[in-house]
Amino acid sequence: ELDSFPVPLRARRLPPRLTLPPSLDCGYCFVGAMVRVDFDFVNEGGSGRFFIIDRQAWESGDHTPLDPLEVSATARTSGPPTVFSVSPTFAELPAGAAGRFSVRFAPEREGPLAHALVLVCDNCEVKELTLTGTGCV
Fold this sequence. Notes:
The chain is mainly beta. It is 4% helix and 47% strand. The protein has one helix and nine strands; from the N terminus they run βββαββββββ. The chain has one helix spanning 55-60; strands spanning 23-30, 35-42, 48-54, 69-71, 84-87, 90-93, 98-105, 111-121, 126-136. It is elongated.
């Protein structure tokens, strides 16, 4: 006998949860010099894939990840000079795994500098990150 009937299914996965703070501070660096800062993190949730993208690009609908992501302190740029460079911009982490984002900070001027990014997860969760640093003379 053949028959069809609906079977309700419900699936849920543990969402990923990275231990990244909302602000990634590169500290102080002389204008014209460069410092590289590594930000280590752990996925304390379920497995997931992530990419980092410039917030302005994300908001405008340009969801093309770049590796490395190079940005000025005010707008996205296509080449030098850049203030911040982030690599890698893509990570795939199982539950409990550790990862690292490296940020190169090369200030073009004196004073505090910042740039907004978004961290996008494969479960459609979006988290804002801010790169910060201070240029010194």
